[in-house]
Design goal:
The protein is of the alpha/beta class and about 220 residues long. The chain has eight helices and seven strands; from the N terminus they run αβααβαβαβββαβαα.
Length: about 220
């Protein structure tokens, strides 16, 4: 009888010990870095709850509500920025993404945008809208096309892939975005952004104040 009880107690102790060890390993092991892939085109859905989370039922538009899509996931990630967002983008005309950056700006997030000089001046570009809102924007002045599409959020989260920030890219084209916290991936993009940002500093380009003001005015006058 005692032998059976002893064996039973031993089994219970071993089971509890295994659970305790598993719990400790789970608590002590480093958190896994975020790695996520989003594919487009995205379904169309209402996004108002992302911009106004305190009023989730305030929108009565005809678009589907409560649907998680690739684009809504992307917007949520972007809107999670707490300190900084560096964006290097060829084409930027998507008004929801522009709205997201303006919302971040109003929350005190530091935003830097680097775009292609030719695309910044096309009809529908949001570059002028961002600049008028006080967001620091520079346009690549090299002879080659600035065709990058990447962003770094809070110096730790990378967004990169084929997706331009346009309505066509989001809703029609076959596109992709990789979102990653892997330091070995994030750091080279931080370095590349800083290199291009410095390279396209108006002071480095030798533009006088009058020339720079005229250039900015010509971009801001583009119809939105």
């Amino acid at each position: 009888m005692w032998t059976v009880k002893t064996v039973g107690l031993g089994v219970v102790v071993l089971s509890l010990s295994a659970e305790l060890i598993a719990w400790l390993l789970c608590r002590l092991s480093p958190a896994r870095n975020l790695n996520e892939v989003l594919f487009f085109p995205s379904e169309t859905s209402c996004l108002e709850h992302i911009f106004t989370p305190s009023s989730p039922r305030s929108c009565f538009c005809s678009l589907p509500h409560g649907i998680e899509t690739s684009f809504s996931r992307l917007l949520r990630r972007i809107m999670s920025a707490s300190s900084s967002l560096d964006l290097c983008i060829f084409a930027f005309s998507n008004m929801d993404l522009s709205r997201a950056l303006l919302a971040l700006r109003s929350r005190g997030v530091t935003i830097r945008v680097l775009s292609d000089k030719n695309y910044a001046a096309v009809t529908g570009s949001q570059i002028g809208v961002l600049r008028k809102a006080g967001i620091c924007v520079r346009c690549h002045k090299g002879s080659e096309t600035m065709h990058h599409k990447f962003a770094v959020l809070d110096g730790r989260l990378l967004f990169t892939g084929s997706l331009n920030w346009t309505l066509t890219a989001v809703q029609i084209n076959r596109e992709n975005i990789l979102i990653s916290e892997e330091p070995d991936l994030v750091q080279p993009y931080i370095q590349e952004f800083q290199r291009l940002w410095t390279q396209n500093d108006p002071a480095q380009l030798g533009l006088g104040k009058d020339q720079e003001a005229a250039r900015l005015a010509s971009e801001d006058d583009v119809p939105q």
